UniProtKB/TrEMBL annotation:
PANTHER family: GLYCOLATE OXIDASE SUBUNIT GLCD
Coiled-coil portions: none
Key words, A-Z: FAD, Flavoprotein, Oxidoreductase
InterPro entries: FAD-bd_oxidored_4_C, FAD-bd_PCMH, FAD-bd_PCMH-like_sf, FAD-bd_PCMH_sub2, FAD-linked_Oxase-like_C, FAD-linked_OxidoTrans_Type4, Oxid_FAD_bind_N, Vanillyl_alc_oxidase_C-sub2
Source taxonomy: Bacteria, Pseudomonadati, Pseudomonadota, Alphaproteobacteria, Rhodospirillales
Keyword Cell inner membrane: no
PROSITE patterns with a match to the protein in the record: FAD_PCMH
Protein species of origin: Kiloniella antarctica
Keyword Transferase included in the entry's annotation: no
The protein's required cofactors: FAD
Annotated FAD-binding PCMH-type domain residues: 48-226
Signal peptide per UniProt: none
Protein name, per record: FAD-linked oxidase C-terminal domain-containing protein
Length: 495
């Protein structure tokens, strides 16, 4: 995995840059010692590490604006960082870039129940939004497994989802507005408390842009009333293929559960040992299906889903009898990632999305890949929307195993694209999937995306080395190809 070569002239100016940034962020807002910078040398994708040039921790939008304006003028690269929970290397530092850490932006600015929205700073945790409003019967719907730690700004950058995204949508479906700062220091606002706006969907463009277009300094999100009733089913199957077929059958019946998650045997056993959620250990696949809404509707749908599961081959079925038991069902699923960490020295968490009806095929192919590479894999995924999270188990202390895990992961992502899916569902591209982008996009597609990048950041200073497999200069993208001295389409007027 190659990153852009460090700019030696910037490295030589490290102390000068730090002194200038201290004028913008006084006190302890600039971190430069190598020992303190070790905290920031990676994000959640810990296989790749690189200390930044320095880290700066602004406290308000004005400071962010002045920092970016200075970096734009001086040609200094900037890597934005939220809580550092990214699993795609999106917040991986660069040796010649400052790390712009947004952790001090941690205040909830406004809760507006009349408009069912909340205005928060980007460093507020995902779960923190729900905690702030749950006393009044509201919550924030997207709920990644890392919701206790991940920041809402990072959720916007990666378009995070969660176990309830099937019914309630990803971050983009629950985002109403943002304040952001461009690389030249310009402060912009897109959207707001209103439901929708006219003109280009720049709010949608920013969601999932992975810190390449600007830095988010304020977020307005939709909050929802807590459903009257929520109940969950634990459904066990003898094979993952049967579990996948049950998922497709539920959706084809027109039922949209609040959440529908699936785990295979290694993940089930790891989660049960970790949480003691009461999962059956004699099945190869476990499906968690949650129905929410009015009491009568939930009771009716529970019976329908139970019947569908039985016809699909379910060998065990258990329905939550109270809120505590429902939460326990989900506790195992949300702890699946750390639980698998108890089984293996290292694991590589993948993220790809496929059409739901391809689940049985993809699970079968992944087992074949596991045998080919000699590495175990535990599968945990958002079954309802086809977002897979295979956990490839390896030992980095064994020579060559990290490389095998990377190759295994790349083959899984290629398979996702092959069956009609995409490279990422919610973790983003970052550096992890960067070199696989040509598997999904043509050269024309990628250059068009780069033109959008250039419109916001012509000097390519924001988060360089991420998303795009080859970083073109913006001027190169505007060049016209002339063959044998002849202009293309000579009849078109030119000005």
């Amino acid at each position: 995995m190659k990153m852009p070569d460090p700019d030696q002239s910037i490295l030589a100016r490290r102390e000068e840059i730090a002194d200038r940034l201290r004028l913008i962020v006084p006190g302890e807002g600039v971190i430069i010692s190598s020992q303190e910078l070790q905290v920031y040398e990676s994000d959640g994708l810990t296989a790749y590490r690189q200390p930044p040039l320095l880290a700066v921790l602004p406290e308000n939008t004005q400071q962010v604006s002045e920092i970016l304006k200075y970096c734009h003028t001086e040609g200094v690269k900037v890597v934005p960082r939220g809580s550092g929970t990214s699993l795609s290397g999106g917040a991986l530092p660069l040796a010649d870039a400052i790390l712009l850490c947004m952790g001090k932006f941690n205040q909830i600015l406004d809760v507006d129940y009349d408009n069912r929205c909340s205005v928060v700073q980007p460093g507020v945790t995902n779960l923190g939004i729900t905690k702030a409003v749950e006393g009044d019967g509201f919550y924030y719907a997207p709920d990644p497994s890392s919701q206790i730690a991940c920041s809402i700004g990072g959720n916007v950058a990666e378009n995070a989802g969660g176990v309830h995204c099937l019914k309630y949508g990803l971050t983009t479906n629950n985002l109403l507005g943002i304040e952001m700062v461009l690389i030249d220091g310009t402060v912009l606002r897109f959207g707001g408390k209103h439901f929708d706006g006219a003109g280009y969907d720049l709010l949608g463009l920013m969601t999932g842009s992975e810190g390449l277009l600007g830095v988010v300094t304020e977020v307005t999100v939709r909050i929802l009333p807590k459903p009257e009733t929520a109940r969950a089913l634990l459904l066990g199957f003898s094979t993952s293929e049967e579990g996948g077929a049950c998922v497709a059958a539920i959706i084809s019946e027109g039922i949209i559960p609040g959440g529908m998650e699936m785990m295979d045997k290694p993940a089930i056993q790891a989660a049960e040992a970790f949480v003691n959620a009461g999962y059956p250990l004699d099945v190869d696949a476990l499906l968690i299906v949650e129905l929410d809404g009015p009491q009568a509707e939930v009771d009716y749908l529970i019976e329908r889903v139970s019947d569908i599961a039985k016809k699909s081959g379910a060998v065990t079925s258990r329905i939550s009898q109270n809120e505590e038991e429902r939460q326990l069902f989900w506790a195992g699923r949300k702890a699946a990632f750390p639980a698998v960490g108890r089984l293996t020295p290292d694991y590589y968490c993948m993220d790809g999305t496929i059409p739901r009806n391809k689940l049985p095929l993809v699970l079968k192919r992944m087992r074949e890949m596991s045998a080919h590479y000699g590495l175990g894999v535990a599968n945990v995924f958002h079954a309802g929307d086809g977002n897979l999270h295979p956990l490839i188990m390896y030992d980095a202390n064994n020579p060559g195993e990290l490389e095998k895990a990377e190759d295994f992961g790349s083959d899984i992502l290629r398979l996702c694209v092959e069956v009609g899916g995409v490279l990422t569902g919610e973790h983003g591209v970052g550096v992890e999937k960067r070199d696989l982008m040509p598997e999904m996009f043509t050269d024309v597609d990628l250059k068009q995306q780069l033109r959008v990048k250039c419109a916001f950041d012509a000097k390519a200073l924001l988060n360089p080395g991420k998303v795009f497999p080859e970083l073109h200069r913006c001027a190169e993208l505007g060049r016209m190809h002339i063959h044998k001295g002849k202009l293309p389409f000579p009849d078109i007027p030119r000005f």
